[in-house]
Amino acid sequence: VRAKIEMEDRTVRQLEMYQDDSITVTYNDGCKLLLSACSASFLHMDMNSRGQSCPSSCPNRLHQITQFAVSEYRQKLNHALEFRNKFAERLFLCDLNGDKPKQIRDVAVKVITWPICAHCIEYTNSGSQLLHSKDRNACIELMPNGRLFTVTYWAASNKRDTCSGVTHYPVVRWCSVSDVPDMWVCPLKLLVTNGQRNCIECSHVDEHDCSVLHDPLPIMCRNVHLHHWDKSSLHQPGLSDMLRIVWSDNVTYRLMWDKQCVEAYADQHTVIRSCDPQGRYYNMWTSHNGEPNQFKINIDHLPQWKEFSLAAVTGRMSRLLKAMAAWRGEMLTQSICWMVNNEDIPTMPRGQCLVKEEANLTGIGRFVAYRSGRIYIAHVDHTVLEMQWPQDDQQNRMLLLESCQHLPAGYCRLLLSSGQYHMIPTAHAPQPYQRYIQGAVEWGRWAYCEQHQHSDTFTISSSDTQHNRVASDEVAKIRELLCNILV
To answer: For residue 301, what are the CA distances in angstroms to 236, 281, 316?
Structure first.
């Protein structure tokens, strides 16, 4: 498999990859395809649907699981996944069309072993250095410019074939010598040492060089509540808003936030790297007849370049550098779905929790009280509250000790619609969360009161009811307005 920078889909205007590995694809017709950080689900926004000519109307949004995507979107997804797997930290392997070359083996390959002898290095006519793995199922290629390398190998999918073997897919990884992933340091050392280039720091080559591969991401995501689809958070950007890779006009831009610099790959032979945060000076590496050439360029005195527009490339790099400088120090802490270990999320055991009371309030949510004192409330705005109610008798007190080991006394836990957990004090709750706490306290008093004090039905306070009634009225007004616009 040979690496290609150009996209096969000519309808693509721009591709963006973010720090959480999510993808946004913009097409020439205005449509957009958004892949979640794990790529297990996608959102397609069609700007050309019927009835969408009014500026006040919303685009046609389709949200589906990637594995079960309808045929209309599979080609777009294949191109987006191919782009993602070139740069993402973890692969997502999902054969949507079934026409990709693949191999089936009984055992999945987890480690790639590389030879350590210099005579194993091969050379291409263009001047690139090639090193094949010992089983020749993987290949690393260092470009003649010495700043860019690719790794091609067969990656094992988490999904088994019908013959009970492991399905392998060919993947191509694009990496910069300025930011080498740990797994590719060993084979790259040999190539750099052989070429006597000072691209990376290397003093010796290990006797047993190998690359330990990461497991691909699962086909289904267990943390869909952590998927972020809104990329417009400009004032306080998080990982889902920080660009890592941008592709446009056959040029790939890599943003290195830790170094505050940008690299551009105009083709396989040319690499441009910024030298200052203001974007006025750049280093440029190219090759001629297999020999690397390096020179500095000034944005005010750009040389003529026939292969591409040097002014357009450096101009975009300068704008990206300014955007990076503007976002410095304003990063939000976000949980990435594929990085969250579900075993680390504090959960309350439910095996011994029998339901004591349950109520469904229209426009408010579902209220559940357990005999152990655990209260669980799922609100209609996708906010989930969990708290413990004090118990008097000895049996329920023992259940309480088991179930509240992750929940301090006097606190409740809120899971917001954004996927973030918050520990809120029940006595002095912040203003945005007071109505949730008030509803939970009223529910607890009703559910755990004495039998002779127990009313037949549970009703929540007028303030919270009024809040939800106002929200419902506003939603109804918006729906009516949209119906009148579209008619």
So the answer is: 36, 10, 16
